[in-house]
UniProtKB/TrEMBL annotation:
Dynamin-type G domain segment(s): 34-307
InterPro entries for this protein: Dynamin, Dynamin_GTPase, Dynamin_GTPase_CS, Dynamin_N, Dynamin_stalk, G_DYNAMIN_dom, GED, GED_dom
Keyword Phosphoprotein: no
Matches recorded under PROSITE patterns: G_DYNAMIN_1 (PS00410), G_DYNAMIN_2 (PS51718), GED (PS51388)
Protein name, per record: Dynamin-related GTPase
Gene Ontology annotations for the cellular component aspect, listed alphabetically: cytoplasm; membrane; microtubule
Transmembrane spans: none
Keywords, sorted A to Z: GTP-binding, Nucleotide-binding
Claim: GTP-binding is one of the keywords in the record: yes
Region (Disordered): 526-553
Entry's family note: Belongs to the TRAFAC class dynamin-like GTPase superfamily. Dynamin/Fzo/YdjA family.
Organism: Volvox africanus
Domain GED: 720-811
Pfam families: Dynamin_M, Dynamin_N, GED
Length: 935
């Protein structure tokens, strides 16, 4: 009797053939759409009964068996259930991959063919090979599934077997059973101690969780008298998650005597019925139950597989249809006038696609993955250009010492009392000049993006006309370039304009007064903080000196100047300061009038260099003058500095005066410098003894390498602070201007220009009588690709119809009450948490079905809920996550028939894309999206 396909198999039988049909459809052509079906592999020691188990599942006698090593190459056996054939015609047959078109109706012949094919490769003397034999068995009496018969594990090499035969077979078996979608039938003979089972040992390696291993116990009928395997079948001995199934198969003598398979099944039934020790497990034993359980597992798996499969088929179909459109279906037009119209249409399409991509009107799937089209141009502005401007430091690379030197050099031989205009302008220009590089870089990035868009805008139909693509690429790139040149000129002019006139009247400019106020406030705050600390330290000692009374600012600034600052009134003394402050005359602002005629703008960097270098030659001051600048005046009488022009005016000219000023140097006129000889010029020390030594080319401070704030006098540091603030303020204005104008310039000269003019340009460049034929000549491979794409579309449509035969509830993954496979079973894991997986769920379903039809008197069978069996911890609804069957071995049918990837092959369309890309890359440069840092 063939395996009993009871109603619980109905679902599987309706579904699995559809999957097989799909596999067959895909096998016909080069549509590399793979199905990730689980397969069933038998593993175990030599002569444990592996082939016998497979045979029994198939229900036919066709595999070589014996007590010696028999299976010497893996056998991939695809069982395909067929409808019963018309009377008189054999309904069962086998086909080998290595003998295409040959149908084997005689199963003895199949056995012989397996033997011969084995010997053909590895000889007759017991050697083994890992090269599989692929066999399809078509029968109305089989469950549809793929089985793998593997050579048995052995220890001692015999015959032609190599010395490492044990390791070889082990590896061969592991190669199959390691695959996550392989269901392992671990076959162990019951007449050998289970603790020594090779099958279980190997299955443990490949499936440590035990979620896809079913134990199969053979030879129950020939166990030692007085022993039985009931405890094993109850899963009590060496527990497996999916438990054990006991079978009684044919002995060698039965085979020799030709005992028919149905007889054997009957005998098995009788065996379990007549052995009291197996009564409680009998309902779940036997070949029929093994088949049912495997089927349930497969069905559950396929249920999870189908929705994704349908989606992939539809996607593949879309890809092929799109490819067909690009290849031109039907054939391209022939008449000249029609060709002209077609070319015109293509050019207009191209220009429209380019514009649409810029405007964000062209949507495609790629857009979910990355920015594209106009959004990228905008990203260049917002995510690259603007942040790059923000990061710019107006006094980049200039130390305080250098700024100070520039200021001093700008003051010339007579020094200045207030902030000199020239050094400020020089530094401001230098800072603004920094805006040039990111601005030009922004233009370059947009240029790249436009070329990228131009590349992507190619209408798919152009793919078949390589010359047209080439000409298009040239024409478009030229056109984009023609917009980039004036954009660059404009950008340069804009930055030059910003540099050329330092507009101190700009309403946003902080101005000299503002800068001084800010610095004073800062300093006052610092001073207040430090005096607060001191006060805390000396609390209770009463008010301190005059410097501590009143505001911190007034302690620094002369009262009149302070008043002027606060009231905007005039100062009694002439002041020198920056021009461009809001009010003039004799107010505080007058302090900032320029000391000399302004120079024309010079090259900032060279000016800076020159002015810095000049530092050594410029005296830091002359006797009695505030050689270190106007800020000394602001700071005089400041108690904390310990300096005062009153007290030391007579003695000091500057630290530079060295020995000449030695007596007064320690409290010298010049702030900071008076603090000690070490602040003076190095030359001062060298010149001790009265005569002045030669003036070094750099100031000692710079020579010492310490041009930082700590090396400057307090006055110089304050001066530097004010100048820095002025430069920062002015730079911020220019940066703001350019952050607005540069994108506008680029948009105008490049983006909008190309968008508006591209169509005209293309028509002018390419819509030419002399080019028409060449441009519309198809590439040589297009015809072949068109027919391949058509074939693929046909196959995929067939696959779609095949899938339409699948009941909807299966595709949706809805539970099927009738089948029971939707009820998962929670197997307890070590921590007591329920672990549910499709395999166990399917097994539970099969068991439930078996229990329902069981004729045993047992209390629901050993796998039933609550029985304490390995499955017995109750059931759970199977909104189960599908097991991630990430890979699988190739199915039977064709070399490319494997199920190891599951991905849609887009080779043809990809080659089309590659074609486009290759054309483009010869003409156009690839446009990587540079990161922010690239700027
Ligand atoms: N009595 C009895 N004999 C069995 C049973 N199962 C298998 N046999 C016998 O055991 C021997 C080995 O069986 P095979 O099916 O060839 O074992 P195998 O594991 O495929 O062997 P190799 O492919 O050589 O590793 C054969 O003679 C079978 O008839 C069983 O349940 N009872």
């Amino acid at each position: 009797m063939a395996p009993d396909h009871s109603p619980d198999d109905t679902l599987g039988n309706s579904l699995i053939p559809i999957v097989n049909k799909l596999q067959d459809i895909f096998a016909q052509v080069t549509v590399d759409l793979k199905l990730d079906l689980p397969q069933v592999a038998v593993v175990g020691s030599q002569s444990s009964g592996k082939s016998s188990v497979l045979e029994a599942l198939v229900g036919r006698d066709f595999l070589p068996r014996g007590n010696d090593i028999v299976t010497r190459r893996p056998l991939l056996l695809q069982l395909i259930k067929t409808s019963p054939g018309p009377t008189g015609r054999p309904a069962e047959w086998g086909e080998f991959l290595h003998a295409p078109g040959k149908m084997f109706y005689d199963f003895d012949r199949i056995r012989q063919e397996i033997q011969q094919e084995t010997e053909r490769l590895v000889g007759a003397n017991k050697n083994v090979s890992d090269k599989p034999i692929r066999l399809k068995i078509f029968s109305p009496r089989v469950l549809t599934m793929t089985l793998v018969d593997l050579p048995g594990l052995t220890r001692i090499p015999v015959g032609d077997q190599p010395g490492d035969i044990e390791a070889r077979i082990r590896e061969m078996a592991l190669e199959y059973i390691r695959r996550p979608n392989c269901i392992i039938l671990a076959v162990s003979p019951a007449n050998v101690d289970l603790a020594t089972s090779d099958a279980l040992q190997l299955a443990q390696v490949a499936d440590p969780e035990g979620v896809r291993t079913i134990g199969v116990l053979t030879k129950l009928d020939i166990m030692d008298r007085g022993t039985d395997a009931a405890h094993i079948l109850r899963n009590a001995h060496i527990p497996l998650r999916l438990g054990y199934i006991g079978v009684v198969l044919r002995a060698q003598a039965d085979i020799m005597a030709g005992l028919p398979m149905p007889e054997c099944r009957k005998r098995e039934e009788v065996f379990f019925a007549s052995h009291a020790e197996y009564r409680d497990v009998a309902a779940h034993c036997g070949v029929n139950n093994l088949a049912r359980r495997l089927n349930a597992i497969l069905v559950e798996h396929i249920r999870g597989l189908l929705p994704g499969l349908r989606r992939r088929i539809h996607e593949a179909l879309e890809v092929r249809l799109a490819e067909l459109r690009t290849l031109g279906d039907p054939e391209p037009v022939q008449s000249r006038s029609a060709k002209g119209a077609y070319l015109l249409q293509l050019l207009c399409d191209y220009a429209e696609r380019y514009a649409a991509m810029l405007d964000g009107r062209h949507l495609d799937l790629n857009m979910a993955q990355q920015l594209s089209g106009g959004a990228r141009v905008r990203a260049v502005f917002t995510e690259q250009f603007l942040p790059a401007l923000t990061r710019l430091d107006p006094a980049r690379d200039l130390t305080d010492g250098e700024v100070s030197t520039v200021i001093r050099n700008g003051a010339g031989v007579s020094g200045s009392l207030m902030v000199p205009q020239e050094p400020f302008e020089l530094l401001a220009r230098r800072a603004v000049q920094q805006l040039m590089a990111p601005s030009l870089s922004c233009k370059d990035r947009v240029h790249e993006e436009l070329v990228r868009i131009a590349e992507a805008a190619c209408p798919p139909e152009t793919a078949r006309f390589p010359q047209l693509q080439r000409h298009l690429a040239h024409a478009v790139v030229d056109f984009i370039r023609s917009g980039a040149a004036p954009a660059e000129a404009m950008i340069r002019s804009l930055v030059d304009c910003e540099c050329d006139y330092i507009n101190c009247d700009h309403p946003d400019f902080i101005g000299g007064r503002g800068a001084i106020r800010a610095v004073l406030q800062d300093r006052a705050a610092r001073q207040a903080a430090s005096s607060g600390q001191r006060k805390e330290a000396t609390e209770g000692t009463g008010p301190t000196s005059s410097g501590a009374s009143g505001s911190a600012v007034s302690g620094i600034l002369p009262r009149k100047a302070m008043g002027a600052l606060e009231n905007g009134t005039r100062l009694p003394t002439p002041a020198i300061g920056l021009k461009g402050l809001p009010d003039h005359g004799t107010s505080l602002d007058e302090m900032f009038l320029p000391t000399g005629s302004r120079r024309r703008r010079s090259e900032s960097e060279s000016d800076i260099a020159a002015m810095t270098a000049m530092g050594s030659t410029a005296p830091s001051g002359a006797g009695g003058t505030l050689a270190s600048g106007w800020f000394s005046w602001l700071l005089r009488d400041r108690p904390e500095t310990g300096i005062g022009i009153h007290s030391s005016a007579a003695g000091s000219v500057s630290g530079m005066a060295g020995g000449g000023a030695g007596s007064g140097g320690s409290s010298g006129l010049m702030m900071g410098m008076g603090r000690g000889g070490d602040d003076g010029l190095a030359v001062a020390a060298a010149a001790a003894g009265g005569s002045l030594g030669p003036l070094p080319s750099l100031l000692a401070r710079q020579l010492a390498g310490g041009s930082g704030r700590s090396r400057l006098t307090d006055s110089e540091a304050a001066e530097v602070e004010v100048v820095r603030r002025l430069v920062e303020s002015y730079f911020a204005i220019s940066r703001k201007n350019l952050s607005d104008l540069i994108p506008k310039t680029i948009m105008h000269f490049m983006v909008h220009y190309t968008k508006r003019g591209l169509q005209q340009h293309l028509i002018k460049a390419l819509y030419r009588d002399d080019l028409l034929d060449a441009l519309l000549t198809e590439a040589d491979d297009v015809v072949a690709r068109r027919s391949a794409a058509k074939e693929a579309v046909g196959v995929l449509r067939a696959a779609v119809s095949a899938l339409e035969e699948v009941p909807n509830e299966m595709l949706l993954g809805a539970g099927s009450g009738g089948h029971g496979a939707s009820n998962g079973t929670a197997a307890p894991n070590s921590s007591g948490t329920a672990v549910v997986n499709p395999f166990t769920a399917a097994v539970a379903a099969a068991d439930a079905a078996a229990a329902a039809s069981a004729h045993s008197e047992g209390p629901g069978g050993y796998l039933s809920a609550g029985s304490g069996g390995m499955m017995g911890s109750g059931s759970a609804t199977s909104s189960l996550p599908p097991v991630p069957y990430s890979s699988g071995m190739g199915g039977f049918g064709s070399p490319g028939y494997g199920n190891d990837g599951g991905s849609v092959d887009r080779s043809v369309s990809m080659s089309a894309a590659a074609n486009i890309a290759s054309v483009a890359t010869t003409q156009l440069q690839p446009m990587p999206f540079r990161t922010l840092e690239a700027l």
